UniProtKB/TrEMBL annotation:
Membrane-spanning segments: 6-24
Keywords associated with the record: Membrane, Transmembrane, Transmembrane helix
Stored Pfam families: DUF6587
Name under which the protein is recorded: DUF6587 family protein
Lineage per the UniProt record: Bacteria, Pseudomonadati, Pseudomonadota, Gammaproteobacteria, Lysobacterales
Region (Disordered): 64-84
Amino acid sequence: METGLLLQYAVIALAVLVSAWVVMKKQFPGTVRKARGAIALGLVKPQRAAWLQALGRRIAPPATGGGGACGGCDSCGPTPPKQH
């Protein structure tokens, strides 16, 4: 296989992965959050290498103050009316 064709396939695969990630974050924020948490928990175990633990802490989803309806960004509900 030619190098140019291989590079083309790699760029297309990267574009497809990025697109899928964006759609998943928009449409299924709870699922993405659970997946990130599961991956991070596997990486931060004490018997793992230090760089894997650091990667796990970086992948881990941010903590939320409460349980949102979908477990996502906690801003999917209607906005309250402004009080004058």
